[in-house]
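My current task is to audit a protein record that another person submitted. My question to you is simply how this chain folds and whether the tokens agree. This is what I was given:
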Amino acid sequence: MSRQFIISAPSSNAGKTTVTLGLLRLFKRQNIMVQPFKVGPDYIDPKFHELASGKIGVNLDLFMMTQNEVDATLNFYGKNTQINCIEGVMGLFDGAKKDQGSTAEMAKKLQTPVLMVVDAKAVAYSVAPLIQGFANFDPEVKIMGVVFNRVGSERHYALLKEACDDINVPCFGYVSNLKNIEIPSRHLGLNIRDIEKFDSVINQIATELDKTVDWKGILEASKEVVSKAVSEKKSKVNKNIKFAVAKDEAFNFIYPQHISAMQELGEVIYFSPLHDVILPDCDFIYVPGGYPESYLKELSENTKMLSSIKKFAQNNGQIYAECGGMMYLGKAIISEKNEVFKMVDYFDFESTIANKKLHLGYRTSKINEVVFKGHEFHYSYLINDTETTLNATILNARGGETTTKIYKKNKVMGSYVHHYFGTEERVLQLINEINN
């Protein structure tokens, strides 16, 4: 028997990540086995979660994943833990379309209570109607209580708690308004080494929360969950595929479910486009997104690896590359300063991060009769593009057409879309489309 709760807020930047990281570290200090999860497709917050808890951060996303896949993910990664701590995305009811895909929808699907983090910097008793509105807006979403962030003093907190008492919403404490314990907004330029610098900050947050937050009360108010036995399906596919996955400082936007699904079909070997000089023996290469723009010189100078990947592709090797991985397979990547760095030179285009343009949103890709769900988030764009594209339909979350493309040359496929393929069936579908 374990417990489970969701952390959300009225809006972004209210402090839910600060509270999440502090609680994760606090639970770890208390030798409470905790498993972190993140609502939505974000790759950065799960890396912070792993730093805080020592357990791999895992995404839960109702747009990209089916309900069964969400349940299976929770069950698999939370099977040996005492508490599942799920951080929400944006504001509680903010979804791709109204509240679809929102933290609120996740709370309803999982029948899991929500701990609200409310920014109290410039408010006192007026939090009462705000909290009451969120608590009553959707009766299916259970608000278990509130933690206030950026509280100025104990007197300030007394006013806030009084407001909670008057509307019968439990108050579990507060975080002081201390700037030195704030986690900055995450962005694409933040690399793994930057994240590790925040270990001491997370320690400070946990120490503060231990003084001012009733974490035992939060645990008691959480939902009790029982792990379900996972039925093992006997695959008819020979499990002998050798997957080579690019993973280093430049390429690391990888959902752990992808790796688990590949391992069901064979062996997963990691390699580094930055540090290795030759590919491992493999059947299929997966080059995920990440931060290639932060390592352009190093990637460009590793000519042996560039040649090794190009040779593999030219010899009918199977490759799937997304976002930064796709950029890496192009002729060159142009930096913010308009410097040109040669890359693999397989796809006939260049990518540039000069004159940044933000592209983001959920995507539904239909290739032949197969549908893949995913998302885009990038500032770069392609130029001098003469590469062959698939006849695929790629729609946004509201069903509108996008200008996003899926490229395919021989058995190499690439796109700006981070597609989700976290099951054995989805990996096989991807391999099949690459081989068509």
DSSP finds 14 helices and 24 strands in the chain. The CA atoms of residues 40 and 259 lie 18 Å apart. The first strand starts at residue 2 and ends at 8.
